[in-house]
Amino acid sequence: MVQNTPAPRGRPRSFDEIEALEKATQVFWSKGYDGVTIDDLVAGMGVGRPSLYAVFGDKRAIFLRVLKAYAERKGAKAAKALLSPESLRDSIAGFLRFAVESATEKGSARGCLMVCVAPLVNDAEVQRFLQSAVAGGTALVERRFRDGISAGEIASDFPVVARATQVTDFARGLTMRAQIGMPRKTLLKDADEAADLVLLPRRENAGP
Predict the structure, then answer these.
(1) How many domains would you assign to the chain?
(2) What is the pTM of this model?
(3) Relative to the CA of 55, which of 93, 97, 134, 180 has its CA 20 to 30 Å away?
């Protein structure tokens, strides 16, 4: 009697997909989106060309996966810093300090992939993703301000929307200054001062 045997499975992957995407991040960091070729990705990710196309797709698809994974990883850490059970001032300062620390992390490229590389990519999907990420970060800061109002840390008429935008603008500015080589110590000091600035009471319109 002849027994049916299952068909042999394909050869298991010889690479870790997450690790390969992390390596791709460094490739895009080092050369920018336009400067990267498929050969660069093959060499940098340690994945053969057929496997690269089969698992990840073309350069654009790889960059989108890298960008989304990067944003998710960084966003989770930023949210943890912002929504910590500390005072409102310390939470805002922690959020801004995280922007500095991640942009000046030893052993990695200065800056942020979402601030220093992705905005230069001429692709509608990339731009929509960045806009969504910025809106999500601003909404998170707004939430923290509203928690501060509920806790009595700031007045009920505090300009939540405007100040939340200022916080995220400060974070991007600090990141860009890190990219051009400003010292971490200086940027951390500026992050603390920025937290104090955005928490200043609402100013009434000056009279004549």
Answers:
(1) 1
(2) 0.83
(3) 134
CATH number of the domain within which 181 lies: 1.10.357.10
CA distance 167 to 153: 17
CA dist., res. 76 & res. 81, Å (int): 9
In the chain, pLDDT over 90 holds for what percent of residues? 72
201, 149 in Cβ contact below 8 A? no
Positive or negative, the Cα torsion across 60, 63, 65, 68? Answer: negative
d(CA 113, CA 174): 14
Q: Give residue 206's pLDDT band: very low, low, confident or very high (50, 70, 90).
A: very low
Question: Locate tokens 């797709």: which residue?
Answer: 57
Determine, yes or no, domain membership for 45. Answer: no
Which structural domain, as residue segments, surrounds residue 152?
70-198
Element at 142 (helix H, strand E)? helix 124-150
